[in-house]
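Our consortium's second objective concerns turning raw sequence data into structural hypotheses that experimental partners can test. To show how far this objective has progressed, the report includes one record in full. It was chosen at random from the queue rather than selected for favorable results. The single chain below, 297 residues long, was entered without modification.
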Amino acid sequence: MVVDRKKKEKKYWVRKLKNKYKLVIMNADTYEEKLSFLLSRLNVLILGGSIVIFLIILTTFVIAFTPLREYIPGYTDVSLQREVLRLRQKVDSLEIDFARKNLFLNNLRAILEGKEIVVDSSSGLGEGIPDTQETGYFRSIEDSILRSEYDRDAAFSLYYPENEEYVLSRVSHLGSLFFFLPLEGVITNEFNAGAKHFGIDIVAKDNEAVKATLDGTVIFADWTVATGYTISIQHQDNFISVYKHNSVLLKSEGSYVKAGEPIAIVGNSGELSTGPHLHFELWYKGAPVNPRDYIAF
């Protein structure tokens, strides 16, 4: 009897879920029927459950695949951590590279100054450098090239160390310098330091090119009231050559010129000029010298 009662109750609830109901939408003023639906409790449950499941799936998709997930407390962006790690590794690499270059420059300076080189064994910098106490010293081709380049670049420096041996070697080197004739012509006025005429005057044909007497760097190229278009060149061994009263300057400040390269055109510019000519001066260590002592005019 109890079993039959339970079966009847079950059938009753199933039948109740399937009972049809009519949902009518009417005009409140005229009571005119606009829409109507046949529904059952089972249909409503299925529709409501489907909507809930859809909303859950949509919310999960939005959280998992959109930037909104970053607003969830405790959620971290994996790509951001990866980028931070990459930048940290890059900074470490830059620090190591900077340390290596700094050690290289310090050792290069030590080699040029004849001091001992430094080996940083803690960071692996300087590995592979031979011990000069255990191995014999020899000069490689690269070392000779480096020394040659250094001597050529340092030749234009205005600073010389207070070293007697170095100064003597520089003085003996002056005899090997070859001064190029700046201009072919007739000398009309000689060097006279007592009369404050610190150069020689050379008269030449019009439009003749004035040439650099040595390799060097142009340190002045401009117009002055007294000397007109003037150009000055810094050479090795503290020599400076000056070319005055030009009509045109062919080089500008900072230009590097070779010996014999045209730098100006002879002229008659400036208040102190009395005719077309070149006033040529040669200075050594800040003092004027007679160009005839170095150049065969």
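The partners drew two points from this record. Residues 107 and 117 are 5 Å apart (CA to CA). Confidence is low (pLDDT under 50) at residues 123-137, 157-172. Both points have been shared with the crystallography group to help prioritize constructs.
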